Description:
Elements lengths: L1 E4 L14 H9 L3 E5 L10 H7 L2 E3 L1 H5 L4 E3 L6 H6 L5 E4 L7 H9 L3 E4 L14 H21 L6 E3 L2 E3 L3 E5 L3 H12 L3 E5 L4 H8 L3 E2 L5 H4 L13 H15 L4 E4 L14 H6 L5 E4 L16 E4 L2 E4 L9 H15 L17 H6 L2 E2 L2 E2 L2 H4 L3
Parallel strand pairs: 1-2, 1-4, 2-3, 4-5, 5-6, 9-10, 9-12, 10-11, 12-13, 13-15
Antiparallel strand pairs: 7-8, 14-15, 16-17
Helix pairs in contact: 1-2, 1-12, 6-7, 6-12
Amino acid sequence: MHIAVLAETRDGESRVAATPDSVKALIKAGAEVTVQKGAGERAAYTDAAYEAAGATLATRAAAVKGADALFCVRRPDDETLKRLKNGALVIGLLEPHGATDFAQACADAKVNALAMEYTPRITRAQSMDALSSQSNLSGYRAVIEAAELYGRAFPMMMTAAGTIAPAKAFVMGAGVAGLQAIATARRLGAVVSATDVRPAAKEQVASLGAKFIAVEDDEFKEAETAGGYAKEMSDAYKAKQAELVASHIAKQDIVITTALIPGRPAPRLITKAMVEAMRPGSVIIDIAAGAGGNCELSEPDKVAEHNGVKIAGFTNLPARLAADSSQLLAKNLVNLFPLLVGDDGGFAPHWEDEVIIGMALTKDGAIIHPSLSGSA
């Protein structure tokens, strides 16, 4: 099986879909790997390191020529799709929700697309779950960005000149990113609280030493899908939760919002009035800025300021930790590799496997994922 890895072309994208270590693992498993020259430079992976791992270096066009699979971080452009041979796989974070145009482009190019975002949430697929691996680093980096913007110390500091009070941090959304944000803020010494609409999150938040903040009524008890995602809440519940959050958020120094619902705009959690109730010098990090934002005043990829409160709308926090993010994504792809080959090691995707079924957007020139084909 021949795998191609290209330099990412999306603005601000510094990750790469393979590292020298993952190349070694893929070659050991029987693959041939061609890497575009310079593909790993922004993640601090050199061409020499890829060559030492056994990869072939090539131009962009030469790398995709004859490839059975393209491992990527983000969607490839139409020109790259057209260069791939019929039946080749494109595998990466393809932003599949509502991506009919992209799926059609793949189908027209006779390219079979697998979206890592649709990795089923089953036990044996956990090691392939790129959303979780990247979200974990997003939560960590969100706190680091908050610490830089805050401009004050996180932990309590007792000195001869007086005592500095610890920062108060509030994490909204206790999924993978939120839990890592809680843990990181705690490690830095902040007093941390968190909220989430999923009942299971309460115990997880408490286990990390944070205080749980939520309206715990009957609707709250049913607010989780079978796949472990948060459900869309009623307007009545949102109003009650907003009232509770508004009183709490006014006392916070750092707020990190991580609430996302797959395929839908990010829920609005922080209003302009809530921001105006916060103290000057406070910081909001809105991880959901790329999906419309959890904060009314968020601007994608900008640090806005309102009444002395800084609101950071970072849309690609994993790219700010490119080496580690690439390492984890590359490992997710290595773990998926056995489902792409037959017993003889040749290219033979396991189209009947539930993992591949869940991830597949297109196959044999047709859009097949229920969310895009109209059969959902």
